[in-house]
Amino acid sequence: WLDLKEAGDFLFQPAVKKFVLKNYGENPEAYNEELKKLELLRQNAVRVPRDFEGCSVLRKYLGQLHYLQSRVPMGSGQEA
User: Fold this and answer.
1) Spans of all domains in the chain
2) pTM
3) What is the maximum span of the chain, computed from C-alpha positions, in angstroms?
4) Residue 51 and residue 65: Cα distance in Å, rounded?
């Protein structure tokens, strides 16, 4: 049995919106709904139940992060 790591607050919106405006020249406000869903998914992943449903939430969150990172560089030392 291992305890889950604690995660602090984190908002995707400011960094992603800035990146979208600078690199894609699009209105970042067009992505408000998607970014809210991603932040909600993160909140659910942080407070995940320790069961099969919890694993499903974590898998979905990881998939969304992988998809987002393929379009917005979010690694340490990267632009977003």
Assistant:
1) 12-70
2) 0.75
3) 48
4) 21
C-alpha 38/C-alpha 13 separation (Å) is: 9
N- to C-terminal Cα separation, the chain: 35
2: number of Cβ within 10 Å: 4
Q: What are the helix (H) ranges across 7-80?
A: 13-19, 32-46, 52-69
- SS3 (DSSP) at 54: helix
- Digit-coded pLDDT (tens) for 37-48: 999 999 898 888
Please give the angle made by the CA atoms of 45, 16 and 67, to the nearest 5 degrees: 55
Tokens, residue 67: 């998809």
